[in-house]
Amino acid sequence: xxxxxxxxxxxxxxxxxxxxxxxxxxxxxDSYCRWQRFKGTAVFQPFGYDAFGLxxxxxxxxxxxxPKTVTYENIERFRDQMARMNTQYEEKLVTCDPSYxxxxxxxxxxxxxxxxxxxxxxEVNWCTxxxxxxxxxxxxxxxxxxxxxxxxxxxxxxxxxxxxxYRDRLIANLDHIDYPESTKxxxxxxxxxxxxxxxxxxxxxxxxxPVEGETDxxxxxxxxxxxxxxxLTNAEDEFLPRESYKQVDLYVGGPEHACMHLxxxxxxxxxxxxxxxVPVEEPFKKVIHQGMITRDGAKMSKSKxxxxxxxxxxxxxxxxxxxxxxxxxxxxxxxxxxxxxxxRFFGRMRRWLEDxxxxxxxxxxxxxxxxxxxxxxxxxxxxSSMMEFYNKNKAHKLDAPTADRLRTIMGVFAPxxxxxx
Length: 421
Prior knowledge:
Elements lengths: L2 E6 L11 H19 L3 E3 L1 E4 L4 H10 L3 H19 L4 E5 L3 H16 L3 E11 L4 E3 L17 E10 L5 H6 L8 H11 L5 E2 L1 E2 L15 E2 L1 H4 L3 H4 L19 E3 L7 H15 L12 E2 L3 E4 L2 E2 L15 H10 L6 E4 L1 H19 L9 H12 L3 H15 L6 H14 L2 H4 L2
Parallel strand pairs: 1-2, 1-11, 3-4, 11-12, 13-15
Antiparallel strand pairs: 5-6, 5-7, 7-8, 9-10, 13-14
C-alpha cells in the first residue's frame, strides 16, 4: 500500500490556546490526510508540543508559579481543543519530557564531539526584559521578537553550533528541494551573513546544556530541529533505528519559519546524515506554507480586538469555511456573512441525503474534481465543487448507497457530518 508521512509544524502551547492560524493549519491538513486515506493511501499523521521557552517562564514569573506546571496546563487545554476539532493526529511527544530532553542533549553531545558545538567569547544580542541572549535572527529589527524590547550588545561567553561548516551544502541543495520559491530565496540570503548559530540561553525553562558546571539552557530551536524524526520511534536506547526512518513527504507551516526553523532543521538533519543516522541529506520532500487569515484586511490579534476564537464556532462549519476563503497558500479575509452561507449549505445537504427513496447518482466526476483540487491545495474549489454538485442534482432523489458515498465524502472535509446522520 502507498504511504505518506504528512507533518504539520507543531505548536507552542501558550495559555491563549489554539488560535485561528493553528486551526487553518491543523484542521485543513487533517482533511488533506483524510482525503489520502479515502483514496486508499496509508497516512502517518503525528503531532507534538514545542514546550520549552520564554513565554511559559515569563508567565510563571508573573503569577509566581512554576513554568513546568504552566506548560502542562496549557498542553491540556490544547488537547481539549484538538479533540473538539475532530482531527486524526497521533500525539507522539512533548519536548520538555525527560524522554525527549535526553535526545536534545544527545544531539548537542554528538556535535560537540566533532567540533561543531563550541564555546567562545563574542558580542551577542541581549534582551534586558527577557534577560537572555537572542540569536541575530531573533533580534533582526533591533528589538526582541518575543517582547519588543530594544536589544543591547553584550560581550559574553556563549555556546555556538558551527552551521557555517554546512553553508555551501545548504545553499547547493536549494536547487533540488521542493520548497516555495520565496522561502528558497530567503534561505539563500540568510545563508550568504551566515554566522554560527548561538544556542545558549540564560533561562531555566529549557533543555540543560549537557556540560559539567554549565547553567545555560539550549535555544528552543534546537528542540524543534529534529522532532519529526523522533515521531518515528519510541526507542529509548537509540535515537532512530535505521529501519524506522521515513522522509517527511509533506511539511506544512507558516512562512515566518522560512529561515530559522527550516534552516536549523536542514542543518541538524544533514549532520545526522553525515554520522550515519539518516539515509538522506534533506529532511522534507516538499514544504508548503499556509496563508494568513485576516479580518477587515488586518492581521488578527487580541490587542487589536479583531481576533476570532475558534471555540465560538461549530468545528465542521469553521473547517469548511476556512477552506472556502481562498487558495490555501493565500489565506483570506474573515467575514461572518460567509460563515452563515456555509451553515445553510450544511443544512441543505443533510436534508437532501436523508431521503434515500430514489435512484443511484454517479459521483465519479465530483470525486475526480475534488482530487484534482485537493492535490493542488485548492480547498476553496473543493467546497465550491460540492456546492455546485448539490445545486445541479438537488432535485434528484438518491438511493442509500449514493447518499452514504456522499456522506463519506462530506466527512472528509467536515468529520462531524457523518456522526450527525
